[in-house]
Amino acid sequence: MPRADPFDHLAAFLEVARSNSFRAAADALGVTPGAVSQAIASLERRVGFTLFHRTTRRVSLTEEGQFLLEQISPAVDSIEGALEELSQWSHRPSGTLRLVVEPVAITHVLEPVLPILRRDWPGLGLDVTVADVHSNFAAAGYDAGIRIGSYIDPDMVAVQVSQPFHWVVLGSPDYFADHGEPSVPEDLTDHPCIGLKREEQGDIYRWEFLRDGQSLRITPSADVTVNNGALMRRLAVRGVGLIYSSMLHASDEIDRGLLEPVLESFTPGGECLYLYFPEASRNQPKLRALAESCSRLLPDVGETALSHQ
What we know:
Blueprint: H1 10-19, H2 22-29, H3 33-47, E1 52-54, E2 59-61, H4 63-89, E3 96-101, H5 104-120, E4 125-130, E5 144-148, E6 157-160, E7 167-171, H6 173-179, E8 193-198, E9 203-204, E10 207-211, E11 214-218, E12 222-226, H7 229-237, E13 243-246, H8 251-255, E14 260-262, E15 273-277, H9 285-295, E16 303-304
Parallel strand pairs: 3-4, 3-5, 8-12
Antiparallel strand pairs: 1-2, 5-15, 6-15, 6-16, 7-13, 7-14, 8-9, 10-11
Helix pairs in contact: 1-2, 1-3, 2-3, 5-9
């Protein structure tokens, strides 16, 4: 014989006891007054006592009903409190947030944001991988990534996490003293250039320019190619050749006077770093916590749709 449910009909008992009305209890429980009456009658048969005085005008607890209410009320409050606390867990960041970020995001996003995240959510773990290539995003089990918008799959949700920046041609002061500066993009054919290999696309990054609102893309004739932006900048500092980089990536070298931008009137702007993640992960509390921490740096921006040319 199946074991009787010890909580059977107690919900009906509590609602009637609180409202002193079978009809009000039925409304609260979303059932008919008859169903409530049957539940109370079944509970009374189970305990062997009448729990309510019933008249045409009034419903009130009997002495046995008052005893039952006083005994179970603390337990009910405890259960309701536990359920409420448990429901809050679905809104509280927990576990480990796994991020893959490109190197430029370390200085410009992670260093200022992670102290905020750790202060607000000390129980949230972090696992950060720094990588130029993000092609194994899903397979590696990352929760989110940070990289330049033009490299992000347009199906991802994206949150802007940096101010817009420009792309420029850069060279060292010594290089320009020896070779002069290009005046227009076509002059680059007379200058040694350092190319950047894109491992995901399997090509050399084309240098993009704008003239009279029209896009102009140049693949430099580069005697030297590398697959690492930091190495590319170090070679440019040493005068090996010109490079094409964002102002964000080269901010340190520019600030220290090691590299100087040229052709700025021809180079595009409006690029940004984005925190990105799959649509299905949008409501994960740990991702919301990171996005909110990032918004402290850029309070006027939020999710955006990425546009790829």
